[in-house]
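Sequence in, structure out.
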Amino acid sequence: MMSFPGEEVDRQLCRDAIFPIPVACDAPCPKDCVLSMWSAWSSCSHTCSGKTTEGKQIRARSILAYAGEEGGAQCPNSSALQEVRSCNEHPCTVYHWQTGPWGQCIEDTSVSSFNTTTTWNGETSCSVGMQTRKVICVRVNVGQVGPKKCPESLRPETVKPCLLPCRKDCIVTPYSDWTSCPSSCKEGDSGIRKQTRHRVIIQLPANGGKDCTDPLYEEKACEAPQVCQSYRWKTHKWRRCQLVPWSVQQDSPGAQEGCGPGRQARATTCRKQDGGQTGIHECLRYAGPVPALTQACQIPCQDDCQFTSWSKFSSCNGDCGAVRTRKRTIVGKSKKKEKCKNSHLYPLIETQYCPCDKYNAQPVGNWSDCILPEGKVEVLLGMKVQGDIKECGQGYRYQAMACYDQNGRLVETSRCNSHGYIEEACIIPCPSDCKLSEWSNWSRCSKSCGSGVKVRSKWLREKPYNGGRPCPKLDHVNQVYEVVPCHSDCSQYIWVTEPWSICKVTFVNMRDNCGEGVQTRKVRCMQNTADGPSDHVEDYLCDPEEMPLGSRECKLPCPEDCVITEWGPWTRCTLPCNQSSFRQRSADPIRQPADEGRACPDAVEKEPCNLNKNCFHYDYNVTDWSTCQLSEKAVCGNGMKTRMLDCVRSDGKSVNLKYCEELGLEKNWQMNTSCVVECPVNCQLSDWSPWSECSQTCGLTGKMIRRRTVTQPFQGDGRPCPALMEQSKPCPVKPCYRWQYSQWSACQVQDAQCGEGARKRNISCVVSDGSADDFSKVVDEEFCTDIEPVIDGNKKVVLEETCTQPCPGDCYLKEWSSWSLCQLTCVNGEDLGFGGIQVRSRAVIIQELENQHLCPEQMLETKSCDDGQCYEYKWMASAWKGSSRTVWCQRSDGINVTGGCLVVRQPDADRSCNPPCSQPHSYCSETRICSCEEGYTEVMSSNGTLEQCTLIPVVVIPTVEDKRGDVKTSRAVHPTQPSSNPAGRGRTWFLQPFGPDGRLKTWVYGVAAGAFVLLVFIVSMIYLACKKPKKPQRRQNNRLKPLTLAYDGDADM
C-alpha cells in the first residue's frame, strides 16, 4: 500500500480504498518481439465534428526489441503500433448570426413623448427613442453570407426602444449693468473711454440642446466723453512797494520813513489751458495751492542805486525763434555812482524768448510689458487656449511721449495733442499643456511562471510650451510607463511530448537487428486547460529550462538479451538537501534473456541529492509594490497598491505555489494597501493689483507697477506658475519745475577797491526732465508759483552775502570746491561697514610770500554719505626719459587720484647715479651707471668708477701725393699732464672697449673699420708698385694736367 506522496504504509490504512482491478497482460518469452506500453491518448484534433472535420485522438507504442529469427514471436507491422479513436463528436455550427453593437439612441417621432419626465438609470428622461444594431449571417472561416443560410427563428433583434435624456439648452444670465463712464478727469489719462457689461453661462448645452452662440461680453464708447480741462494760476505784476512804518515794525512810535523794507501785493486769476479766464473755484479744485499774494520789497534809500521801472516787453513778430526785450534807465544821483553802472549787477536790458506755440513730441524710455485689457481678452484666430483664458491673448504695450517746445524745454504732453503714450498691439501666447496618447493595452505577463510584471504605456503627442502643464518623466523614446505585478500559473503552458520513435540503430547487426542507436520524439509547447492540453503555442511561453529532450541515445537489445521497461521517475529527495541522502528510480524486466543472452542489469539506480542540481529548497518571496492603481477613468485620488506572493526555488527560479504550500510555509504578508495619487492642480493667481503711484513725481523715468500673487501653488503635474508676477508701465511725462540760484555776482566793496563787500544772486524758475545730465532751462515764474522755494534742500533762500575782495598782497581763501565722491572704508575691495565720507576744501591763495605767516589755514569740511563704492588703487609709471619718469596713482575705474596707493610701494621716479656723473661728456645710463656720450670712451678707475671721458682715437690716412707717407696713430697715452691731475697720481687707468652693459662700444667698431680700410689701401699700393707701367701717352698727360691743377687749387683755372 502507498501513501499519497508515494511512500509505502501499513495495508490497514488502505482498507477503505478501492482495490485496483487486475489487468491482463502478455509477458514476452525469450527471443520474442518486445513492445512498449501504449502512450496516453493525444488531445482531440478538433473541437467539433462535421462533414469535413472529425475529432480524433491517437496513441502509439514502439518496438523495444526485435524477435529472433528462430522461434520468437515477430513484431507487428507499423499500423498495429498506432490506435485512433473519435472525440468531440458533437456537430459544428457552420452558419450563425453575428451582431454588432447597439447604436445611439435616436428620437422616435412616431411615439408620443412623455407627459412628464421619468427617471431611468438615475437620469431624467423626457422622450422615447430607438436603438438599432447590425445583424449579419456568417459562415465559419469564410465570412458574411446571405441571410437565408442562417435559421430565421434564431435571428437576434435589430431594433429596441430606449429612453432619451432631456435636451439641455445653453442658459446664460442676463447682462450686467453697463459700467459707468469716468466721472472725473485725470490729466494724462490714456485710452478711449468705454462702457462694458458681461454675462456668464449657468448651463452648458447637452443632449442636442441649443449651443451657446450669443456673446458674453459687450462694450460701447461713452456717449459724451468728458473733455479734460487743465487749469492754472495766472499771477499779475507786483504793485508798488508800500512801506511798513517803523512804529509797526518795532511797536513804538517813530518818524515817518521814506525808504527801507516794505510789502507789495499782486493779483491772481484762474486761467484755462487755452488762456481763457474762469472762476477761481476751478483752480482751487484742480490747480493746487494759491500763489503768494504778497512779498517783502525794498524802497531804495539815497545811497542805493535807483532806476526807472521796467518798460513793457517789445512785441513779438510771431516767429518761434524770436526774442523780446524790456529796458530801464538809471535816474538821479545814481548816474554818478560807478557801482550803479555795472551792467552785471544792475542790468538795464532784459531779454526773453517770445511765447512759442510749436511743439514736438518724442518717444522716451522703453516699452512697457504687454498688458492685457481689463475685463476682456481678445484671443486671435488659431490660438490654442487651455485653462484660464485671462492669462493670454492680444494686449497692448505702451511707450511714454514727451513734449518739447521750440527751445527744447519740456512742457505738458497735452500741448502736443497727445494723451501721453504710444500704443502698440502685442501678443501674450497662451500656454499649451503636454499631450499624451491614451494608455495602450496591457502587455503579457513578463514571466510564464510565477510573479512578473505587465506594462502599458503612453507616448508623447505634443510637448508643452508657453508655460503649459509639464509632461511626466519620459524615457528616451518619449514614452511613460505604468508597471504592475502579475502572476502566471506555472501550469498554463506545458511541454507535451509524443512517444519516442523506434531506436534507429547506427551500427546495425544485420543478423540480429540490434545494437546502439538514436531515437527521437516531437516536443511541443501547449496551452493547458481543465480538459488537458489544447492548442499549440509559441515555444517561448514554456520554460526553456524544463524542455524535454527531443533525441537520445538508445540500445536495441538483441533477441536473446534481457529487455527492461523505461526507467521510472526519480523519487523525491528528503529535505533539507544533503549529499548523504539519495534518490532512486527503477525499471522492471519485460523479457528474460536466453541462455546465451545478456543478463538483466540492476533494476534500481541511485544518485546523491545535490542542492540546486536534483534537490531544491523552496521559500516564499514578495514582489515590490505596484504603482497606485485607480478605478476606471479616474486620474487621481484614492487607489490601491498590490504585490504578489511568489514561490522561489533555491536556485532563484519561480515555480508553482504548490511547492511552497506543500511545505506549509508561513505567509503573513499584506498583499494590498491603500494609496493616493496627487491630483494635478494648476497654479492659481490673484487678480492684478491696481497700478501704483508713479515712482517719480515728474520727469521721464517714472514707472507705475502692479503685482499679483500666487493664491494656489501648483501641485503634481499641474500647470506651473508664470515667472511674470509684476508688470510696469511708464508714467505720463511731466516737466520738473524747481527754483534755482543764478551765479553769484562779483564781490562789490562800496566806495573802495578791496576789503569787505557784498555779492548778490537771484532765483529763477527752471524746468528739466528730471535726469542728472539735463541742463535746466529758465521758464516763467508762474510755473513755480505753487512750489515752495527750497533750493538744494535748504528752505532758507540766501540772495546776498558778505564777501571779501582781497587787497594787493593779502592772502585769501578761494570758493569751496565741489564735494568729492563718497569714499568708503574698504579692505581688499570689501566695505567694512563704517559708512562713507565726502570732503570739500577752500584753497589758500598767497599773493606775497612775505605775508605767508598771516594767511589763514586751508579749510576742510566733511560729511557722511552712504552711496560710495570700493575701489582698488594701483601705482602707474610712464616710460623713462633720461633719469626720470612720471609716477601716479590710478583708481580701478581709470581715474588718476592723489592718495589711495600705499607710499611704501611707490615706484622710483628718479634713477640718478650715486655719486652723480660730474665728468664732462658723461651721463647716467638706465642701469644707474655713469657712461660717456657717443664719440667718447670711458676711462675707468681700478675700483670700477668712471674717471673721465676721452675722445675716441682717430686714424689719419694720407693721400697719394703725401711725401711723408707715414701713418700716425694715437696710442693710449694719458691726455693730461700728471701735474694737472694730482689726485690721479699713482693710479692705473686703461681704455675700456666694453661698456657697463657688457656690449662693445661704438668707437671699437670705428677703429676696426679704419684698420680694414688701411689694410686695403696698403695692398692696393703694393699692387700698383709691382705692376709694369705702360708708356704714357701725350693726351693722357694733357688730361692729367687739369686734374693736377685742380688738385693744387690754382684759382686761375
